[in-house]
Give the backbone structure.
Amino acid sequence: MSRISVVVPTYNEAGNVRNLTAQINSALNGIDYEIIFVDDSSDNTPEVIESVMSENPNVRMKHREGETGLATAVLEGFKMAGGDYIAVMDADLQHPPHILRSMYDCLETGIDVCIPSRFIPGGSDGGLGPYRKLVSLVARYIGKILLPSLRKISDSTSGLVMFRLGVIKNADLKLIGWKILIDFLAMGTCRIVA
Ligand SMILES: Nc1nc2c(ncn2[C@@H]2O[C@H](COP(=O)(O)OP(=O)(O)OP(=O)(O)O)[C@@H](O)[C@H]2O)c(=O)[nH]1
Ligand SMILES: [Mg+2]
């Protein structure tokens, strides 16, 4: 059976990590998984994660002192991940954890990367404001113009993804800013079929 590492960057998410962990745990019931929190918080998030760790042996944390940045946090999580599949998910429940199960099932069919899209029937952006919508739209279109590998991807600015470890094994990832997925789709070794 394949093992999943769910990488969750956290910045002041004390109110969410316990609920998130419970939802991931029930979504992945029966599947071998670990949750890796990479935390840069200035609130009591690390204490809450430690308490969750004491109840759930599948939870790990790297707390970074004096460092912030979503992209480097995700990269740190990739380095710690021991799974065959790696997922990246926000902590604030904007990404519904139950979807991890279908993403896992997708990868089990042999697919390299699964990106749930906000732009297909039934998709939702979780209530992004108009400015964020515009920035995201422009980033997706610039990406499609510059990078042929993004042309078939409907949601290349998503923060939610699950992929096979092999996709990034030899990739020279220099993740910058918040558009992590574009970077690794361009640098990673995945076959894009849909
Ligand atoms: N480790 C770490 N995590 C971060 C940092 N900034 C944001 N995060 C986490 O990254 C995820 C996405 O951040 P959000 O602030 O929710 O970004 P967003 O969803 O684009 O913005 P909102 O619509 O305001 O929620 C969340 O889990 C945050 O806690 C950071 O500097 N370091
Ligand atoms: Mg958010």
About this structure: DSSP finds seven helices and six strands in the chain. Strands lie at 3-10, 32-39, 59-63, 85-88, 113-114, 161-164.
